Amino acid sequence: MADFEKTGRTRVVRKPDRGRYDRATVYAILDEALICHVGIVEDGRPVVIPTAHWRDGDRLYVHGSRASRLLRAMGDGAEVCVTVTLLDGLVLARSGFHHSMNTRSVVIFGKADPVRGRAEKVAALRAFMERLAPGRWDELRPPTDKEIAATEIMALPLVEASAKVRTGGPPGGVPPTTYAGGAPATPGGPVDAEADYAHPVWAGNWPIIQSMGEPVPDARLAPGIALPAYLRHGRG
Amino acid sequence: MADFEKTGRTRVVRKPDRGRYDRATVYAILDEALICHVGIVEDGRPVVIPTAHWRDGDRLYVHGSRASRLLRAMGDGAEVCVTVTLLDGLVLARSGFHHSMNTRSVVIFGKADPVRGRAEKVAALRAFMERLAPGRWDELRPPTDKEIAATEIMALPLVEASAKVRTGGPPGGVPPTTYAGGAPATPGGPVDAEADYAHPVWAGNWPIIQSMGEPVPDARLAPGIALPAYLRHGRG
C-alpha cells in the first residue's frame, strides 16, 4: 500500500520525527481505538463530537441516528477532521519542561459518503460488530428495515491522513521517537537536557493501560446463556 | 455553584435525559480525563488536535509550544470547542440497534485567554503537575526563564459547557440514564425492545478500564532514587 501523501494539513511540523505516513501505522491506531473525535464547522465555529468508529479497507466508518447533528452535517457534505488518540503513558522527566505523554494519534481530513442500500448498510454494521465481538452479529435479533432506515452510516475515504507517535509501546514495537536531538534512554522514557540527568528525582515512563473488564450480565439475561467466547478472550 | 446555562450549542438534544449541566458532574469528568480534543477552524475547515489539559477553578488550561498551530490559533483569539470523553464500557444488547457505549463526555465552547507573567505561568504549571503527581513540582529541576517564555498557556473560562453521560459507573454513582422510555435492568446495561429480552444472546455491560501501570524507571536514573509515593498509589 502506498504511503499517505503529506499535505499542508497532515504534515507533522513540530517534532517531525514523530510523523508517520504509512498505512500500516495509521490503520493499526484506527483499529485499536474504539472512539474518534469528529470536528465540523457550524456557523463558522468548531464543534467536536465523540463517536464510535470502525475501519474497513481504506475507509473509516461512523454511524448514528439520522437525526443527529453530526450525521446530518456529514450527510450535507460537511468537511470533517477525524482525530483518534491512544494515550499510552505519562513521561516523567527531570524538569517540568521535558515532561511529555506517550501517545499515538491519527488525523484524517475529508468528506464522507453515505452508505446507501439495505444490504450495504447491514454489511457495514456487521463489519463493525465483527471487530468488537466476532461472531456476535449472527447471534443477535436480526435488524428490522425500520432500524436500518433510521441508522445513518457515513464512510470517510482514507486519503488525507497521518499519524503522530511518541511511543510508549513495548521494545520492538514502533521505534522510539527522538526529539531535541536526543533519544530516550528507555523506550517511552524522557529525553532530558544532558545537565539534568544527575538531578535527584525519579524519571521514567508511567504507562497507562486500557483493558476490558469482567463482563456484567444484564439482570434480565435469558436463562441458560453462557458467556460467549469473544467476551472471555478480550476484545479483538 | 450555579449550573451551566443551556445554550443552542450545549443543550443535549438527542437523548436529553443524558444531559448534565451541573458543575460537579462537568468538573469531575474534566478532572478524571488526561487529554482533551480541541477543535478550531482553519481556513474555514475543522481541525481537531489532542492535548493534555487541567482544570483550576472555573478555567480549563492547555499548554504547549508557542510555535504550535493550536496555541498560535488560540492566542490569536480563535473560537474553540474542547471535548473530553471518558469511555467506560461497551453495552451489548439483544439487537444491533440497541448496542451502545457507556461514556461520560464534556463539551466546552469559548475563547481562551493567555496566561501572562512568569509567576502566573509557573503557578499554572505547578497546578498541572500537582494534579498528576502531588509534590513532584518541588522535586524537579526548577524551570528556567527561557523554558517559561517558550511555554504558552491558555485558560478557557468554563462558561458555556455541558456533559453527556451514559453511566457505566458503579451503582450509587451517577444515576443510570434511560432512553426509549425505559431504564436498564442493570446499571450500565442495555435497554432492549421489550420483545427482545427473550432472545437467546448474551447481553450486558462490558466495562472498559483505564489504569496506571507499573512505572518504568529511566535507564539513566541517578543512583539511590526511590519510587515516589505519588507513583506507588496511582494517579490523584
Give a description of the structure.
- Two copies of one chain form a homodimer.
- By secondary structure, the first copy, chain A, is of the alpha+beta class.
- The first copy, chain A, has one domain: Roll (Pnp Oxidase, Chain A), CATH 2.30.110.
- Helices cover 18% and strands 34% of the residues of chain A.
- The first copy, chain A, has helices at residues 23-32, 69-75, 118-132, 145-150, 229-232, and strands at 19-20, 35-42, 45-52, 54-56, 59-65, 79-92, 100-111, 113-114, 151-157, 160-165, 204-212, 216-217.
- In chain A, the strands form two sheets. In chain A, strands 1, 2, 3, 6, 7, 10 and 11 form a seven-stranded antiparallel sheet that branches. Chain A has a four-stranded antiparallel sheet with strand order 4-5-9-8, sandwiched between helices.
- The longest helix of chain A is centred in the middle third of the chain and has 15 residues, at 118-132.
- Mean pLDDT of chain A is 91; it is low at 168-181.
- Chains A and B meet through strand 2, strand 3, strand 6, strand 7 and helix 3 of A and strand 2, strand 3, strand 6, strand 7 and helix 3 of B.
- Strand 11 of chain A pairs antiparallel with strand 11 (204-212) of chain B.
Itemize the secondary structure elements and their pairings.
Two copies of one chain form a homodimer.
Chain A: E1 19-20, H1 23-32, E2 35-42, E3 45-52, E4 54-56, E5 59-65, H2 69-75, E6 79-92, E7 100-111, E8 113-114, H3 118-132, H4 145-150, E9 151-157, E10 160-165, E11 204-212, E12 216-217, H5 229-232
Antiparallel strand pairs in A: 1-10, 2-3, 2-6, 4-5, 5-9, 6-7, 6-11, 7-10, 8-9
